[in-house]
Amino acid sequence: MTKPDSASLPATLYGVRWEGGLDDGHLVLLDQTRLPKDVVYLQVRDIEVLRTAICDLAVRGAPAIGIAGAFGIVLHLVPLAKAAKATTASALDTAYAHAHERLVSSRPTAVNLRWALERMRDCFDRHSSHLTPLEMCARLLMEAKRIHREDLELCRRIAENGAPLMPQGGGVYTHCNTGALATGGVGTALGCLVEAHNRGRKIQVFSGETRPLLQGARLTALELQHAKVPVTLCCDSAAASLMARGKIQAVIVGADRICANGDTANKIGTYSLAVLAKHHGIPFYVAAPYSTFDLSLADGSLIHIEERHADEVRRPHGVQMSPIDVPVSNPAFDVTPAALITAIVTERGVIDHPTRERVAALMRDQASEPAV
Amino acid sequence: MTKPDSASLPATLYGVRWEGGLDDGHLVLLDQTRLPKDVVYLQVRDIEVLRTAICDLAVRGAPAIGIAGAFGIVLHLVPLAKAAKATTASALDTAYAHAHERLVSSRPTAVNLRWALERMRDCFDRHSSHLTPLEMCARLLMEAKRIHREDLELCRRIAENGAPLMPQGGGVYTHCNTGALATGGVGTALGCLVEAHNRGRKIQVFSGETRPLLQGARLTALELQHAKVPVTLCCDSAAASLMARGKIQAVIVGADRICANGDTANKIGTYSLAVLAKHHGIPFYVAAPYSTFDLSLADGSLIHIEERHADEVRRPHGVQMSPIDVPVSNPAFDVTPAALITAIVTERGVIDHPTRERVAALMRDQASEPAV
Lengths: 372, 372
Hints:
Two copies of one chain form a homodimer. By secondary structure, chain A is α/β, with parallel strands linked by helices. Chain A folds into two domains: 6-156, Up-down Bundle (Four Helix Bundle (Hemerythrin (Met), subunit A)); 159-363, Rossmann fold, CATH 3.40.50. Helices cover 39% and strands 16% of the residues of chain A. Chain A has helices spanning 47-55, 62-83, 93-104, 111-127, 133-162, 189-198, 215-226, 239-244, 270-279, 311-314, 356-368, and strands at 16-19, 26-30, 41-44, 169-174, 202-208, 231-234, 250-253, 257-259, 264-267, 284-287, 293-294, 328-329, 333-336, 343-346, 349-352. A seven-stranded mixed β-sheet of chain A has the order 6-5-4-7-10-14-15, with helices on both faces. In chain A, strands 11-8-9-13 form a four-stranded mixed β-sheet, with helices on one face. In chain A, strand 4, helix 6 and strand 5 form a beta-alpha-beta unit. The longest helix of chain A has 30 residues, at 133-162. Residues 1-10 and 368-372 of chain A have low confidence and may be disordered.
């Protein structure tokens, strides 16, 4: 356990990792519920412990949950495979179904978790009749590691594509958390910042605290400190003042969903930053994997703005800070029109000044390219 | 004591008030340290209790502190005057000096407190040699009430001038606290909102919570509920999204300082709102008394941006929410250029699209007009 003062930081933070081999291996998860106060890694060797970690948000971020779930299948099957007397892995059918059910139900709305678990099950279904139980486990571990590696590779490519867009020196403003804690790799927008820093670009990151849940304060500031990237925390409302005083040379954020025309939904406050960046003549970048594009949505007007619970605003971190019954507007995200976006950075390349045609062109390139 | 749920609210909140006559009178202060949880009024009959209330921020807001200080002088002198055997109030010289010193030292940087106490001392100096001790106290009580009444009148005029600018129906966004709790009257920007509501304009106020100290959540939301003005609380970063969705028809804020050309310093986040309002074609109003103008400052570039303590951002309401040693940018206020301001509302009139010439014209009108 390390206290998060910058002197004693481990070199990097990660949300999820497999440690060891098939026989002695286990999952390591950063307990994100204890951040930023304590940096504690959980050693997970049991599917029910993993299930609790997912339910309690000890592990969070869609890609990270999917990766953890995939490794969870292996965790559950290895001891059973060792004890099994059967010659093929089909004997593990019932155990497999149980593990799948326990994990998929831990976060029913998590698309990445469901996707990763289905990919694992496909692998099992294809091979279980011609592999021994232990061979099957080895094959499943390989598949889980592949899922992890693909995400890592995807983040790496986004970071490589985004880093050259960062200023050679100067301030870059970011919002919410888009880093290693939410993904299998270095993250999206945050990955671009870390990569730019590692390439010697002398950037100073300004992390907006990101009310109401303060992911910028709790996670982004911590991750950047660990990566030794100079970071300054500020209230969301200070961004405009920092821009006016010449302290910001670029803004980079992640994305929840990108429409066919480039309109981008992301954490509440993103659109505000895009308008402010435009007013101050500062480039505004979005970094997100290709899978974030939803071509079924022609533009941002079709995105329903979900309202989150009023108490996130009325009772920050459990402390009552407003009249108990005051009505609240607490939109989860906002929509930034493509016209305010300088470029969208994906693992496949950068879309400058995104338009419907340019997004479509990237989709076509994607279709003709081999998978990672 | 009333719990702040909207069903059981007293009709109005006030920060400071004198109750009773000379003989039996006392000061009543709303204990703002207990807001928004509890609405508790303190009955103050002793100068040391008042001093503690000022030191502990039970009473806050520059005009309110000045008014409380003026009444504090009376509180201290009345019992001494009753007991005095002397024929003139000059006998109270030493007691007066003591009271002045105890009060002025309770908040050494509060300009309004110093100003109000000096006005009280001038009154004492002018009359103490020809009035009896009790007559002198009556005169001082009159002077304190006059200071209070002037502030009340000033707020009333600002509210009258600002109310017609509010939309006939629709949303008005405001920031920080500019209400009765900080002044002797109905407040500045908040006064305009209450007055517009009372005149039957069907406004819906959106109160930004105003990080880092959450005056919007703790005070403005509460005051508007008490005044029965429909109010919705939101995170500061949600303002842009509300504007984009057509929910905001005007923005109105207060001011800390206004330069000779109309550039306005106010709570951090104000400038952000001005840029966003401009982008969405929404009028942006500043409401402030004439005394807020500082003609010694030609424009906003001359205003030094004071940084407040990092822990206001790192430890909101005492809860550690970021790495303990992360650097912080926590500017106390920002500067809104006059070009982004639709109008400045003062007690003397409204300056449309403020410029150096229009500000100067108001100052000239002021010079020729009698005092309130």
